[in-house]
Design goal:
Layout lengths: L6 H10 L4 H7 L4 H11 L11 H14 L2 H9 L16 H4 L2 E3 H27 L8 H29 L5 E4 L18 H5 L4 E5 L4 H10 L5 E6 L6 H7 L6 E6 L11 H5 L7 E6 L17 E6 L23 E4 L6 H11 L5 E7 L1 H10 L5 E5 L3 H10 L5 E6 L6 H11 L6 E6 L7 H12 L7 E7 L6 H12 L3 E7 L1
Parallel strand pairs: 1-2, 2-3, 3-4, 4-5, 5-6, 6-7, 7-8, 8-9, 9-10, 10-11, 11-12, 12-13, 13-14
Helix pairs in contact: 1-3, 2-3, 4-7, 7-8, 10-11, 13-14, 14-15, 15-16, 16-17, 17-18
Protein name: F-box domain-containing protein
InterPro entries: LRR_dom_sf
Length: about 500
Amino acid sequence: MSRKLLPDCLNNIFEFLEDDKGTLYSCLLVNRLWCNLSVRILWRKNICDLRHNSIKSSKVLGTLISCLSNESKNLLYENKIFIPTPTIRTPLFDYASFCKFISIDEIYLMIENFQEGSVNDNSDNDHDDNNNNDNDYNSDNDDGDDNNNDKDLILIAQEIIKMFMKRIPSLKKLNYNLNSNEINHQIPFIEFPGARNCLTNLSELNCNSNIHSEFFYQMSKICHSIQSLTIEFDEKISSGLNDLIISQKKLYSISLIQSRRNDKDWTDIIPSLIKHSNTVTKLILKGKNDRRPLSFITNFINLQDLAVTFDYLNATLEDFKDELRYFHFQKLQNLKFGFGCPKSDILVDFIKINGKNLNYLHINRYDNLLNISIPKLCPNLKFLYTIFINKESLIDILNGCKHLECIQVMCGHSYIKEKDMLEAIVKYSPKCFHEIRLYNYAKSYILSKDLDTFFFNWSNRIPQKSITFICLNVFDNLEKRNVKIIEKYRKLGVIKNARTYL
């Protein structure tokens, strides 16, 4: 007698495969049970990351329309809004109820893509008829079409969001970022039937600072379990935002992003943020220049993750030289400075105090003083990204950081040569090392013989450990010969994983 996996066991397996969409899609075809379990996981995050996939966007929109109530469908029909659906029958599943992560801005974008596609289709069909009438085109008609599109956009979005609020028993993540063109499209979905139950246990919120205050006020009354909060600052800060921040009980992660469109930043909400200074363990700050307040960071005494990024490479983060320079974050494990970084002596002083417990260090600037100091100040590093000009300081780090598992290195132009980097890693990296992330500033100059030599020598290391090789190449793909070499050593088990990103 054949044995069947219990649904709970199957579900645990499928949960493990959450990010492996290809495998989950194949599970849909096995039988009814497998389909029932896997479809729920596939739709969990299906209303996110649609902006770069117009085909998926169109299919998701059609499926959501098919899930609408008859009342909503009739409302769209009465307003002459016709969106193709995959079936005229009632859908096999209530797909909307499976969603745990939704993005209001992705819903708008999904509808806009459909509208643009419809306009393009109509334009193609009518192209021949209109060739002789170009001079009769009236901009007022175009304005009228835009107004109709806006009206349709809001109506479609309203009915879809209304469905989500009613059918999702407990939403986990909400993205609500509207650009300046969409700010007038705000829908008071928090007042929809079921919204209170849907949003009560929300754990992650990404939003703009200028969303209408009533939204934040209402959220502050019903939603007290947000653990991760991301705010992008736009032209103004709604008065209700502070109320929402203060009302949270266990806020662990805060990301503050200054828009490139204006100078508004996080100054006005710092007092509210500080009220969570004992619970916050992760803080991310992104700005367009370094004239932003940073000294308030010292209030977050339990920080484990700190990331500070500004748009200007030469930003020196002057706010660091006073209170932050000698401040000790006893639990800090991950530290990142993107574009913009404290001056060398200030940064070294900071890492002298905080480097011992660091597992992750990302410094996006060449700093020889820091590179020399890393082996001594950061002995427990597992991941490192910094800039090297020559291989000597890289060798010192590989010898000194005995727990290093992964390194990201920038090559090309005036930076360390690929050959020197590979030779140093294969010869001096610690036994636990298993991942290279190669970032090519300019065209890749990895010679096939050098790449082959590296993987051959790596295969002879004791103990033998498969390596992950990631090439972050902005300008071109690896040469075909190099791709063949990578594939050869992948088949031999020397390479665990290899990826190339343009």
